[in-house]
Amino acid sequence: MQRSALFLLVLWIGVLFGGSTPTAASATDSPPRVTHGPMSGEVNASSVTLWARGDRSGVMTFVVSAADAPAITVASAEVAVDESADFVGEVRIEDLTPATSYLYTVTLTAAAQTSAPLTGTVRTAPQPDAKIGFSFVFGACLGGQGYCRDAETGWAIFDAMAATHPDFFLLTGDSIYASSACPTPQNAPGAEQPAQNLEDFRARYRYHLEDPAYAAFLNHVPVFVTWDDHELRDNYAGPELASWNPQRLQDGRQAFFEYWPVSASEIPTDTHRLYRQFGYGSYADFFMLDTRSYRDPIVNWDPHPRTLQPKTMLGAEQKAWLKRSLLASTATWKFVVTSVPLAWPTGFPQPEVEGRDSWANFTDRSGYETELMELLFFITRHDIQNVIFLTGDTHWPFAISYDPDRDGVTDFYEFGSSPISALVLAPPPQPDPSFNPAVLYAEGEFQGDLFNFGQISVDDAGVLTFRLYDRTGTVHYEQSIAPTS
């Protein structure tokens, strides 16, 4: 079934069963309701995580059927939901068929009453050895600096994303802005004030998911997500925040894992582990980094002036994992997803006081450039081909090629997309020159509205094309790259 026809089928089912627009929790004597979602995430060739939120304690049931045979159940799962996790339910569905479109339905049962079903769609990834083309969209920075849900259109940029027919969505950080309020639409609950506690964090995620365009997009496009800083606090380092405000760190992390279809780590010593790898056929491996939880304080110099020890953004274990994983990957393209950019200096508005928040030192000595140098020369020394860094955080979109060994041959690329909906900034005149970057594209302005997202497609021959779209669906930049053998 064509994706457009499938989308119309799901819309018709949603209307038939009462729609999926979330509202406030129902009175206890009324039927239960699924208030947020459903959505899917962490999809691979044979499994997917499904997520939804209800309005009360009960049992949430997820039913999966093939899109071309919606009456036949191929998998189902139940999960109890209650107030301890804000009535959120999440299940992992296994034993699915690769490269297959599915319809999934969720209901909530409480006190012998069952909610109206809500539906979504998801397509599994190709099997790992399949040379099949695919596409995805990526972006960062949603709802920042007062650029909140539009009272008239909502976040219509997600309609433009959906129009590219992506196989999945990479949300590369700043999925909420917890430290500021969102004034629109008027009287919309959940964003009246900065988040101060667990319930405030949860309310902000609910506010986001109640945007119709955003919710509809997540109904049909599986998501892979990592955090940057604004999910917890502007420009923070995990160990430092743990020392002076451990409750905020705990609350922000808990709400993030509750409200995204990503399972917390089962490692007892690292229950918030978010760095991970996933593949998409034989053409792509993705390495999702956590650039917040293990980093040294941002204000520290790099390296330390007395000990000469370099700063770390990743921590020893994550850095070793990334090296091993890149070296072992047999995929054509290796995508490293880092929430902060490589060469553009960030740390707005006073980096000279608060430190550089991204990898680059630029004119200061407070970035994380020594560790980045180690990683980049590991890539070139081991001749790891076809590496693409996907980044956000800058509040302007860009494309950069790098030649750190200065042999005249591009060693890797960085593609950045930001913001989806937040303050748009102007690129500096030049990036940090340390790793010989060549700016292929950069666009933005202080008083503009270039809300944007990136789209990457890989065709059946393995050729990659990067496009940068604005919120109307207009392409601002396009570049194709053939893989190096």
Polypeptide structure, described:
By secondary structure, this protein is α+β, with helices and mostly antiparallel strands. It has two domains: 121 residues, Immunoglobulin-like; 348 residues, 4-Layer Sandwich (Purple Acid Phosphatase, chain A, domain 2), CATH 3.60.21.70. The protein has a seven-stranded mixed sheet, with helices on one face. The protein has a six-stranded mixed sheet with strand order 11-10-9-19-20-21. Strands 3, 4, 6, 7 and 8 form a five-stranded antiparallel sheet that branches. α3 runs parallel beside α6. It is globular, with a radius of gyration of 22 Å.
Fold blueprint:
Layout: H1 3-16, E1 34-41, E2 48-54, E3 58-66, E4 73-81, E5 88-93, E6 101-110, E7 113-114, E8 118-123, E9 134-139, H2 157-162, E10 168-171, H3 198-209, H4 212-220, E11 223-225, H5 238-244, H6 246-259, E12 276-280, E13 284-288, H7 316-328, E14 333-337, H8 351-354, H9 369-381, E15 387-391, E16 398-402, E17 412-416, E18 437-442, E19 452-458, E20 464-470, E21 475-481
Parallel strand pairs: 9-10, 10-11, 13-14, 14-15, 15-17
Antiparallel strand pairs: 1-2, 2-5, 3-4, 3-6, 6-7, 6-8, 9-19, 12-13, 16-17, 16-18, 19-20, 20-21
Offer a few descriptive terms:
485 residues; alpha+beta; Immunoglobulin-like; Purple Acid Phosphatase, chain A, domain 2; 7-stranded mixed sheet; 6-stranded mixed sheet; 21 strands; 19% helix; globular
> N-to-C SSE series?
HEEEEEEEEEHEHHEHHEEHEHHEEEEEEE
Q: Count of DSSP E strands?
A: 21
* CATH topological fold name of the largest domain: Purple Acid Phosphatase, chain A, domain 2
The biggest beta sheet reads: 7 strands, mixed
According to CATH, the homologous superfamily of the largest domain is Alkaline phosphatase D (PhoD)
Morphology call: globular
Low-confidence stretches: 1-26
Spatially, the strands of the biggest sheet line up as 12-13-14-15-17-16-18
Report mean pLDDT, rounded to a whole number.
Answer: 92
